[in-house]
Every structure is written in structure tokens, then in C-alpha cells.
């Protein structure tokens, strides 16, 4: 990687971390829990092993997390239709509602400061979003 891209990566990381900290909602969910719910929303029902791999945690850690979230009514366990011995996890309506509320709260926290930027700055941010979305997609895989 060339020096320009290395510096850009470091600056982007600083901005992403800062925005994440400044827009984070109440700590009702850990980052891993929120990411797991988002994965279920985006990709649909999944086995625990798939979720653990997707979130980069051990199976025992994911098992404990799923137990807590199932107890909170955020995820539902059901038999895998292709293998009755396995369990498939899916997002409940309550889990989807929680994700929607958290996203709305984060967007509201960003909307105010966006109003303080001049039109050129807002346009540059908007123009960068497709490239940032592609970067996020590459990082997910």
C-alpha cells in the first residue's frame, strides 16, 4: 500500500471511530450484539456457527450472547428446516424495532451537526458515500 493510502486509512479510521463514539446510543447492546442483530436483519436467519464467524467471536461467546438476546426477545431460535438437529436464529420484531430505533437516534445525532456545515461540505460528504459504502462492503467479506 502506498504512503498516501496508508495515511488516508489512518485518517479515515480516526473519523470513523470518532463518529461511532459520538453517535453511539445508550449501552443497551454491546457492539457485538448490535452487529449480530444487524447481520440477522441484513442476511436473514443463520446458524450460530455462521454468526460467530461473521462477528469474529468464539462459538461459546456467541452462544452466551444469543442466550441473552433470546431472553430479551430480540432473537428467536427455531429448528433448521434442512437439518432438524441444528438451530437457526432469526431476528424478532422486537429486535428489528430496536435496530430501527438505534439507527434513528444515530441519524438524529448527525442531522443537527450536518445542518451546521456549508452546502459544499455536505455535497462532498454525499459524493463520498458511495465509495465509503463500497469500502464497507469489501471489509465485510
Automatic annotation (TrEMBL):
Organism of derivation: Klenkia brasiliensis
GO MF, one example: DNA binding
HTH marR-type domain sequence ranges: 1-134
Keywords tagged on the record: DNA-binding
Record-given protein name: DNA-binding transcriptional regulator, MarR family
PROSITE patterns per UniProt: HTH_MARR_2 (PS50995)
Classification via Pfam families: MarR
Domain of life: Bacteria
InterPro entries associated with the record: HTH-type_Bedaq_tolerance, HTH_MarR-typ, WH-like_DNA-bd_sf, WH_DNA-bd_sf
PANTHER family attached to this UniProt entry: CONSERVED PROTEIN (PTHR39515), HTH-TYPE TRANSCRIPTIONAL REGULATOR RV0880 (PTHR39515:SF2)
